[in-house]
Amino acid sequence: MNKRKYKLLVVDDEPSVLFTYRLLLEREGYVVAAVVSWREAVRELAESRFDMVLCDLSLEEQHSGFEVIEEARRRQPGAPCVLLTGYANVEAAQHAEKINVPVLYKPIDVKEFLTTIATVLRDTYAEAKTGSGR
Amino acid sequence: MASAEVRQIAAQELGVGGTGFAPRMLRGRAAMRLLSAERSEEIFPVLLEEIVSLGFPRAFAYEVDLESGEIAPTAALNCSKNFLKGCATSLWAGDDPVVKTLERMQPEITKVSWDKNSWYVHPLIFRNQHLCWEAERDRRRDCLAVLNSQHARKLQLQEQVCGTCDMRAYVAAVMVEVPAGMQDRLAREIPGIVELANRYLSRLFKVEHYYNRMRDMETTIGQMETVMESMADPVILTDTHYRVIMQNRAAEKFFKMPEGVSEGGARAVEFNNLLFSAALSSMAISGTEASRDLTLVDVQEGEEVLFEAVCAPTYTREGIRTGMVTVMRDVTDLRRADQELRDNLIKLQQAEEVVRQDRDRLNVVIENVGDPIVVADKGAKVVLLDPLAKDVFGVDGAQQSDPELVKNQAKLDAYLTSFTFSFADRDSGPLRLYQPSSGGEVEYEARSGKVYDARGQVAFTVTVLRDFSAWKKLEQLKLERRMLEMEKFAATGRMAGTIAHEINNPMEAIKNAIELLNGQVKPKAEPVYSILKGETERVARIVRQMLGLYRSSERVGTMDVNSVVDDTLTLFARQLERAGITVTTDLGQLPPVTGSADQLRQVLSNLVVNARDSMAEGGRLRLRTRHLRSSDGVHGWVRITLVDSGSGIPANVLPTMFEPFVSTKGEKGTGLGLWIVKGIVESHGGKIRVRSIMGQGTLFQIEFPVVRA
Q: Of A27, B152, B665, B681, which has fewest CB within 10 angstroms of its CB?
């Protein structure tokens, strides 16, 4: 099993949805920070370092999940991110692909949700581990 | 006749001159000798011999050439040649005593220039006391012989042609030398004998005249026969009973029984004669020239020949009808040609009638087309304008004062010239023309065709101008209505999408919550938990499908179908690749299509997803786009064809596959995909068709209407 607990930031403007994401992820043994707005997300990113950012596309006050991802990547280049959305137009989908962000469409199959997160984390940090010799 | 009687007659006839002086024997002998003369030339020699035998030393006869007036000896006794030469004289020598005696026509003894002795001159002329039979029959009084004998008168040269029989008289003179002492004897013997000779001479002369006339007539008849024979047309001479007197060879072919003719031939000849007689008798009634058609059989050739018989009656001098001359002209070819001409005329009239009807029909069509029509010749020169076209271009050929109409004409000329000299059979193009009735400009669509002549050269061009503006307005209305439909559909979709979007987040929470309860429910509640979980997942799928209809601000406009196809395939490229599906595209040149690109993307996405799902083991997906032009050159379709090599659609599903909630995917499907596809296509005024073979694949064909602007 993982010796190290991955720390994830989850952003969704629906509190009930956010709550279930947190419970699901914590059940999987991740350390989860769950916030409902772009503002809080930016503050969280400023305070601590996250192994992964999971973010809804449409946030409050016309803010977008891409802004959160940009902030995360600004602080930590190449930070693994996943975009969660009920609906994405072509431009959004293409943009996500361009910046190498997988998109999960709500309603998200829980198994797929967890598998995607695990895969992205392993792909990112297994390489880094071998690379750093840890 | 007994010689005694002859003698008596001769004696009586000698009674003209003095009688009873000459010895009977001698006078009788002279009369007999003269009577036995058969020809007129024999009379003078006999007479001269008789005169000399009476004791006169020399005698000769003069004859007057009535044409030249020469007077020359023709017969002589005891005269030398030289003497005779000296005797020749002429009527014009008025001083000659002989000529004077001749003119007086009275015998006398006179001195002559060419001899020392006196000579007896006895002038002779053709004469008789009785009318000739011809004059008698014709009851004429101008018989020359009688005129000459009626009273002694001076010689009238110009009268010496008989008014009855055209005979020319003779004028002569008997010359007897009178030695001294012979006067008495001469007066006793000679005048009587000469007069007798003249009577015989006149009779012989008359007979010879008739003989000559007969010879002439025979010659004429011969010439006439030759003329008749040389005529190619049958000529027939008939008597008053229509019996054939004479016919030429051409006529014999029809009317004369040939030798060794067959029974049929003989009957044909008989029939010809019968027909001819009947035709003649009917023609004879008129009494003047008449003509009649007659069909006869050529016995040798066995052909029917059509004749036109022209018949003229013949009359005697007294006006008595003697028969008829019939000339027949072969008019078979003529009549045949005439009939052919008649037939051709009828055909021509019929053809003309057909053409006239066609033209009338065409005129009705042209008048009712309601669009201006222009007919131009091979040189692009306008030859015909219908009334509507005249409104726009002015009366053909007239000088235009309205500059707008001149401009219209120039535009038309430019268009016609480019079309006429192009290689295209038909063409169309826009023409913006000033409209005098409205005072504004109207956009016309000119549609032209070429009419070729028999050699394949352009003879005429016909151009119909369609008022494009009215038509365009109509098309615009249609388009607007369709766009309204699309908008309505889009609005409905947006509403469904919005609802789905709103449901989506609570759904996500519920679904996650159910998952979190997994393993924590009491065993007794497990079945309830699984219903909750399964049904929630189903609602989630429906919501997902409906979310596709959610579009925030998409408006209907024009779309480039090919780029939508590319976009959609790009979106699914990775998924398709992963599923082992190879994609090929064949995108044609397309006009823009009125509609929503996002909705089209939805359509294509649904179809691509279906195709992918039907090819679990991989396969081929082909996409093709085409522009289909309609014959009117304005409307058309854009067709998108999508073919997969998947499992196919069961036949029992095909009829209902576009209805909502019909799915072949079981738990995985919502049954909304194709329903949405159909809704979008139909709201675009389009059509969708499907063909599927189980185990081989499915073909979808979508067509969107396009209108050329």
A: B152
Edge-to-edge strand list for the sheet holding B382-385: B382-385, B373-377, B458-467, B440-452, B426-435
Model ipTM value? 0.83
A87·B513 Cβ contact <8 A: no
B506–A16 CB contact, under 8 Å: yes
**Residue A131 above 50 pLDDT?**
no
A28 close contact with B: CB closer than 8 A: no
Residues of A in contact with B567 (CB under 8 A): 90
Q: Does A98 touch chain B (CB under 8 A)?
A: no
Per-residue tokens: B633: 């050159």
Please give the structure tokens belonging to residue B496: 């469904």
Q: Do A104 and A112 touch, CB atoms closer than 8 A?
A: yes
Q: Is the dihedral of CA B400, B404, B406, B412 positive or negative?
A: negative
Question: Beta partners for B435?
Answer: B440
Pair B505, A86: CB distance under 8 Å: yes
Contact flag B515-A24 (C-beta cutoff 8 Å): yes
- Residues of B with Cβ-Cβ distance to A105 under 8 angstroms: 544
Half-sphere exposure of A98 toward its Cβ, with a 13 Å CA cutoff?
8
Rounded CA separation A98/A92 (Å): 10
| Chain B residues close to A110, C-beta within 8 Å | 511-512, 515
Q: What is the DSSP letter of A64?
A: B
Q: Is the dihedral of CA B205, B210, B215, B217 positive or negative?
A: positive
Q: Which pLDDT band holds residue B10 (cuts at 50, 70, 90)? A: very low
- Distance, in Å, from the CA atom of B133 to the CA atom of B316, rounded to the nearest integer, reads 17
Write out pLDDT tens, residues A53-80. Answer: 999 988 877 788 899 999 999 988 888 9
**pLDDT for B68-118, tens place per residue?**
889 999 999 999 999 999 999 998 888 888 898 888 888 999 998 888 889
| Alpha carbon distance B458, B450 (integer Å) | 6
pLDDT per residue over B259-317, tens digit each? Answer: 887 888 888 888 888 888 888 888 877 667 788 888 888 888 888 888 888 888 888 87
Q: Which pLDDT tens digit goes with each residue over B399-411? A: 667 788 888 888 8
Q: Which residues of A touch B547 (CB under 8 A)?
A: 86-87
CB pairs under 8 A between A and B: 54
Q: Is B110 helix (H, G, I), strand (E, B) or coil?
A: strand
Identity of the residue numbered B360? D
d(CA A70, CA A51): 15
Considering only the beta carbons, identify the residue of A17, A24, A106 that sits closest to B516. Answer: A24
Task: Please tell me if residue B292 touches chain A, with a CB cutoff of 8 Å.
Answer: no
Q: Rounded to whole angstroms, how far apart are CA atoms B129 and B145?
A: 7
Count of other CB atoms within 10 angstroms of residue B79:
20
CA distance A95 to chain B (A): 12
The residue of chain A nearest to residue B553, with distances taken between CA atoms, is A89
Contact of B11 with B24, CB cutoff 8 Å: yes
pLDDT digit string (tens) for A2-15? 447 889 999 998 88
- Residue A14 CA to residue A21 CA, distance in Å, equals 11
Q: Among candidates B19, B391, B62, B339, which has minimal Cα distance to B189?
A: B19
Tell me which amino acid residue B38 is.
E
pLDDT digits (tens, 9 = 90+) for B472-503: 778 788 878 877 777 777 777 777 777 887 88
**Residue B368 class from Cβ within 10 Å (0-12 exposed, 13-18 middle, 19+ buried)?**
exposed
For range B382-406, the mean pLDDT: 76
Burial of B390 (0-12, 13-18, 19+ CB in 10 A): middle
> pLDDT value at position B144?
85
How far B611 CA lies from chain A's nearest CA (Å)? 21
Interface residue A104 vs chain B (CB under 8 A): no
> Is A87 in Cβ contact with B501 (below 8 Å)?
yes
